[in-house]
Structure formats: C-alpha cells, structure tokens
Amino acid sequence: MSNILIIKTSPRTGGNSDALADEFARGAAEAGHNVETVSLARKAIGFCRGCLACQDTHRCVMRDDADAIGQQIHDADVVVWATPVYYYSVSGQMKTMIDRSNPVYGTDYKFRDVYLLASAAEDEPTTADGAVTALKGWVACFERSRLAGVVFAGGVNERGDIAGHPSLAKAYEAGRSVGR
C-alpha cells in the first residue's frame, strides 16, 4: 500500500484536470492505497526567491502554504500532478509549487513514482508535450524518482467537457495500477 499525494494545480476548482485527479484518486483508493489530495486553488504560495537557504535548512524562508505541501511531497510514496495545459505547458500554480518544492531536494524523500494528469482545449497529441517536459525537468532532479505515467485529455475546455472522455478511464486505471 502506497501513500499517494495528488496535487491539483488548476485555479478553476472542479475543472477538467480536477476530474482526472478525482478518477486517479478513486482508482488508487479502490486498490487499497492511502490517497491525499491537495488543491492549490486557494492556497497562498509565493514565488521562490532563489535564495537557496532551503538547501541547508530543508525549509523555505517564506512561511506560506508551500511549506506544508513540500513536506507532503517529501513524505509521499507517489506524487501525482494534475494541471490544465496553458500555452503548451503546466499551469503557473504548478510551476510555482515545483519551484517551491526545492527544500525537498537533497533530502531522503520517499517518492519514486510521479504521474502527470493534464487537460487542454486543444486535442493534438503533442499538446501536452511542454507540460511533460516541465515535469520531467523536476523529476530529473530527484534521482530515485521516475515519470511513471501521463494521462492527457484533449479537446476539453469548459468545466465538465471531460464527462465521458476516455482519459477518465485511463486516469482511473493509472490509479488502480500504482505499485504494480
């Protein structure tokens, strides 16, 4: 049984990437995993100042919601990032949280598997490539981790457009398959 942290990064709660996250969570919970979900939508998370004090203290000098989320990332066995694709990359909220997770770098973090769940209005197969690249850059800094899976839902823009989309079943199955 794994401890799974799902980070919803959309500023629009209840949107399409949140639906992917919810299906991943449902599949993982049904498979017997402990699932915790955090939404960044109403969190106070400032931009990284680049001071690098966290490399010595493993804590950020800024005291906001990113500090606790970083600790959750550190303690999770599996980290799942859910994002809308904005301008062919991750949401600004996701990028800011990635930067603010810097205190985890150089620690004895637990996570090995990292997943990306992404939704976008455009439905070309390459639409999420920039988001994948952004997350791969973060994963590469954590040598014991790997990008274990990507689920992309294209052609969904308005809240609820994802209903019936095949990506929901893929997200559910990815959650059920964690650790296999």
Automatic annotation (TrEMBL):
- Alphabetic keyword roster: Flavoprotein, FMN
Q: Which domain of life is it from?
A: Bacteria
InterPro entries tied to this protein: Flavoprotein-like_sf (IPR029039), FMN_Rdtase-like_dom (IPR005025), ISF_SsuE-like (IPR051796)
Presence of keyword Transmembrane:
no
According to the UniProt entry, its GO molecular function terms are: oxidoreductase activity
Domain named NADPH-dependent FMN reductase-like: which ranges?
Answer: 3-116
What PANTHER family is this protein classified in?
IRON-SULFUR FLAVOPROTEIN, NAD(P)H-DEPENDENT FMN-CONTAINING OXIDOREDUCTASE YWQN-RELATED
Q: What is this protein called?
A: Flavodoxin family protein
